[in-house]
Amino acid sequence: MKDKKDAVLDAAKRRFHRFGVKKTTMDEISSDAGVSKKTVYEIFRSKDELFVSLFIRETLKVRKIFLNKVAHIDDPLEKIIQLFHVAANYFRQESFWVQVLKDTDGLYAPFLKERYRRQVEEGIVEIIARILEQGIAKGEIRPLDTRAVSYFLFKLFQSISYARTDSIKGDEQDLETMMDFILRGIVLKESKNRSRARKKIERSNSFGHQC
């Protein structure tokens, strides 16, 4: 059944990405997936349920991508720089997941409840918080409320990525400016840490081209 479920989700993803949820029918999805319409409804009670299941699956995939990209980095400052670069590059893509979050034409809003958007937010905030906690434990990041600061950093990142306005390009220069601002705010004041942070800021632009 799992193979059929994935086939249905993959077919729906292609259809939703190209035509939107409203203009896609369950008949089209079943045909593309190579299963009967009855089978589709045995797996998903409705198109809305199918869409939510797809969004959750894609969210978990993206979270895994982000974590894998920074898993090999031990230094918390380098890790947070890399995380934001990986995320920024991903959000510049026109993937289905990014399209849903941007939702510039309001095509997905009726089908995606706010709690699912919050799950995305909470997942990213949790990743940032863990890195901050590692940095505090290693004496590189000053003591702070990791949950609150992670939320602030996520909202700051949103402002230069999928939630940005036309006044911000969201390019590498904007990202570098944001990272400079972040590192100046979270790094301990001791000269050694400040010096290391400055070198990481200067290198941050090269990170972006490696992602």
Structure commentary:
The mean pLDDT is 85. Helix 7 (114-137) crosses helix 8. The protein is elongated, with a radius of gyration of 20 Å. It has 10 helices and no strands. The chain is mostly helical and 211 residues long. It has a domain at 75-210: Tetracycline Repressor, domain 2, CATH 1.10.357. Helix content is 72%, strand content 0%.
Helices and strands, with pairings:
Elements: H1 2-19, H2 26-33, H3 37-43, H4 47-70, H5 76-91, H6 96-102, H7 114-137, H8 146-158, H9 172-186, H10 191-210
Descriptive key words:
72% helix, 10 helices, single chain, 211 residues, Tetracycline Repressor, domain 2, mainly alpha, elongated
Detail the poorly predicted runs.
Answer: none
The amount of beta strand, in percent, is under 5%
Instruction: Give the overall form.
Output: elongated
- Given helix and strand content, the structural type is mainly alpha
Mean pLDDT across every amino acid position = 85
Please count the helical segments.
Answer: 10
The profile of the biggest β sheet is: none
By CATH, the architecture of the domain at 75-210 is named: Orthogonal Bundle
* The level-1 CATH class of the domain at 75-210: Mainly Alpha
- The radius of gyration is 20 Å
Number of strands: 0
In sequence order, what are the helices and strands, one letter per element? HHHHHHHHHH
Q: Kindly identify the CATH topology of the domain at 75-210.
A: Tetracycline Repressor, domain 2
How far apart are the first and last residues' alpha carbons, in Å?
A: 35 Å
Q: What share of residues is helical?
A: over 70%
